Amino acid sequence: MPVTIYEPAKLRPGTLRIIPIGGLGEIGRNMASFEIDGKILIVDCGVLFPEEHQPGVDLILPDFSPIRDRLDDIVGVVLTHGHEDHIGAVPYLLRLRADIPLIGSTLTLALIEAKLKEHRITPYTLTVAEGQKEKLGPFDLEFVAVNHSIPDALAVAIKTVAGTVLHTGDFKMDQLPLDNRITDLRAFARLGEAGVDLFMSDSTNADVPGFTPNERDIGPVLETLIAKAPRRVIVASFSSHIHRVQQVLDAAHANGRKVVLMGRSMVRNMGIAADLGYLKVPEGVLLDAKKAVNLPDDKLVYMSTGSQGEPMAVLSRMANQEHQISIGKGDTIILASSLIPGNENGVYRMINGLMKLGANVVHKGNARIHVSGHASAGELLYCYNILRPKNVLPVHGEQRHLVANAALAVQSGVPEENTIIAEDGTVIDLKDGYASVVGQLDLGFVYVDGSSVGEITDADLKDRRILAEEGFVSIFVAVDKQTGRVIVGPEIQARGFAEDGAVFDAVLPQVIKALEDAAANGTRDTHAFQQVIRRTVGRWVNTQHRRKPMIVPVVIEA
Amino acid sequence: MPVTIYEPAKLRPGTLRIIPIGGLGEIGRNMASFEIDGKILIVDCGVLFPEEHQPGVDLILPDFSPIRDRLDDIVGVVLTHGHEDHIGAVPYLLRLRADIPLIGSTLTLALIEAKLKEHRITPYTLTVAEGQKEKLGPFDLEFVAVNHSIPDALAVAIKTVAGTVLHTGDFKMDQLPLDNRITDLRAFARLGEAGVDLFMSDSTNADVPGFTPNERDIGPVLETLIAKAPRRVIVASFSSHIHRVQQVLDAAHANGRKVVLMGRSMVRNMGIAADLGYLKVPEGVLLDAKKAVNLPDDKLVYMSTGSQGEPMAVLSRMANQEHQISIGKGDTIILASSLIPGNENGVYRMINGLMKLGANVVHKGNARIHVSGHASAGELLYCYNILRPKNVLPVHGEQRHLVANAALAVQSGVPEENTIIAEDGTVIDLKDGYASVVGQLDLGFVYVDGSSVGEITDADLKDRRILAEEGFVSIFVAVDKQTGRVIVGPEIQARGFAEDGAVFDAVLPQVIKALEDAAANGTRDTHAFQQVIRRTVGRWVNTQHRRKPMIVPVVIEA
């Protein structure tokens, strides 16, 4: 994409500099930095999940380079809520400086602390709640309740001498949420009255017309499905969706069924949620997996993860008959979740597999068993009208979402020149009610792959895609250092290409001849021999097989 | 999936044997064989497009093994319409026997003939039209007009002494199609009155409630979009969707714009369609690409392919600024097509790219500019009620579609035991109004990859996925045949793993040591040395890097 990179001018005292570090141009790895008078505040630090053109990548982190040399200036990281795309990169940030304070709600901090425990990090934390104000260096923070698909989410108002920013985090405006904790429009109104200079708002659903339906609407559907189910019910959802699980527990309880929680993250998160009072477990409804075998099938509900068709998760393993629970006729599977773009093939494969085993599969395509966690266009308009922000910076979304969100701002009366469609690394300065783009940093994707962080490059991923699509041919040869004559080999190995390398025997004489010719012409250089092999084999494979595998020549001078 | 393979009993005279060869359990590679009294009729012979877990595969063919040894018994191939998933595998079938007659409508045959020309095959053809009857050996065929997203589609009634089968091909029931050629329910009624023993019907949209909207609804939307567009308009759709292109031509013409057709298949197909009268080109509306530079932007509409985000197609190249048409502010891009599952990430990447360049992108997510080509549940119910078939075999769909279609049949009164949910290779015998499953053949996926057909196996694809996700490490060594001592190497190459192989230097001493130990213990066998290398390097990479690359040891005894 055509981004012009340019360094911003040095930040002047009294000006607030905002850099979206991640989450613009993508759904995930949300992170933004705010700097004024030498101090930096971070909002969120999440991960992005890889797409199919990033094979083998486990996670994608924000590029920390804008703050890497400024770690000691960071006064804290505000975590708006406990989803992976907002907290997942915290362990990697704390590896750089372990004592950066984390600021968030009770549930958010409990979830990040559990995650950090796995990384053997004990963080410094500051628990905050809606309505609470905190001063961190030059930043006066006020936390505002917002409703989302995880409890205890917060927006944060960041007040500085340069002006006031309101950052929503992720939110929607369910008017009848399960916990009655609504997005606090009274606070939005009060902040709007006082003047919001920059509004950074969740764009995820900005291109969805109308209003996001209520979470509460799902309960009756779940209850009917469970009541009608002749045998086992297996519900799959996200392991952080405490209110969804709450509704499953309630629906199971109402139907005299027991619930077995399955999957490590589901068990862990619901344990935390129950301990802290976010999940209200009806007396005796939860059952240990081992005891489930003693109950008849029509008294059981399994609550699992794996709704996205993840191959290693419980549900996919059931579909592939690789799980101890063997699915059969009469079983009801409920995918009470979204279908994240890119996962369609995997999810449908799983659905088809479950149906072949005889299960009835209910999903959002055939029943109202999921609602989104994000505000749709209608709700965003409410926000713009109640806040009347001076400037708008849509965050959390791909280009299409950011553009749609900005269009809503303009429709509600924000001047078009005061809406900023930014990218990761765009540098925005705020001063006296003016927000302007003053630079563009060159930020990349930081890939986590096994134990390596940031070592895999886009070139490596391109190699991987070539390997996947074309396979490779490796040719080994040892040549005499003096004469250039082949003394061992050539030996050819190929993978991902055909059943074996026998097909390549035909090219061996050509390789030997080409090497001999090169040696006769005075070539003694390993690199030149490699080029000869690459050219000879590449041309032959392309002509004979219409394929372009990766060609890996290995020449040893002996 | 748990399919029990068993051979059917020998086919008795007077019994009709039906084998769905492709298209059941997948959307694509549709093909079915019908055999009675020693003669075989084929209906359709299409391709399936690969998913992301089949990297490098160009096409997937039906497994011809049920008919491979019976080629001379084939009386003909009925092609219901000209889509790739119904005709794309014909060249591969005709490679086995070039003179198998192809039977289809004028447009269908024109499209397959154009395709066969590229394969340098001139087929034997029999052109048929709706209402026409033909006798091919023991098969009395009657062709029935059906409406679909390509003109001139046909259903086929296959009458034999064993009973009557009605095969819909792909269809929907648009009641106001552009060419006024509706699905002929009068013929359905007449066939139903006479008795349909087996109904094979398109399941693609069986799980979509209600009715598929009319193609005609799209015209006004296109016209409004083109009228409002300040600069160029680029419409992308499928190159076979003649009625969609017709509506674009008409809308452009109504707005005084010229249309430039782009992309080889678009130009070719519209040429055929115009020549045969299926596309009615308003006088002077088409413009050669070279002349377009002379017209102002607001007088131009480009009609292209690439709506699925295919990287090499015109539209993706525009999004990546790799096309001579450079997209900018004011340009309108209209994706007048479906979004095929699995293509989401690629399509959204393209949309985001186009939007970053300043274009307004209209797609089915934000405007009614596409309708499906397949009958929804409501339309299928009409079919069941008007036909009242004795037996039902849902075709064309994944398990979820087949199950949904069978459920509609049952709702309309077909006994559940008379609906057959089959798979590719299920053998169904029809006799005296009874249809029963009598066998299950073991059919596989036949992958086309470059010039290779059927050589790539699922094991090769698994190799490719491992290469993509984990890369490979290749270790070369030459050992002395007598002593087992390393005389050349070890030399390590790695790809897709880290920037270079330098990271592996640390394992070399271990490899040498392991080989020496093995040699000291008497190992002289190449295979055993390879195992030693594989184990040593594998363990080291797993421990040090938490990765499991493919390990390719090459041992030469010299």
TrEMBL record, chains A, B:
Transmembrane among keywords: no
Locations listed in the record: Cytoplasm
Keywords: Calcium, Cytoplasm, Endonuclease, Exonuclease, Hydrolase, Metal-binding, Nuclease, RNA-binding, rRNA processing, Zinc
GO (cellular component) term, any one: cytoplasm
SUPFAM superfamilies named among the record's database cross-references: Metallo-hydrolase/oxidoreductase
MF-aspect GO terms: 5'-3' RNA exonuclease activity; RNA binding; RNA endonuclease activity; zinc ion binding
Source domain of life: Bacteria
Record-level GO BP terms: rRNA processing
Amino acids binding substrate: 239-241, 370-374
Function in brief: An RNase that has 5'-3' exonuclease and possibly endonuclease activity. Involved in maturation of rRNA and in some organisms also mRNA maturation and/or decay.
Protein name: Ribonuclease J
Organism in which the protein naturally occurs: Glaciihabitans arcticus
Taxonomic placement: Bacteria, Bacillati, Actinomycetota, Actinomycetes, Micrococcales
Gene that produces this protein: rnj
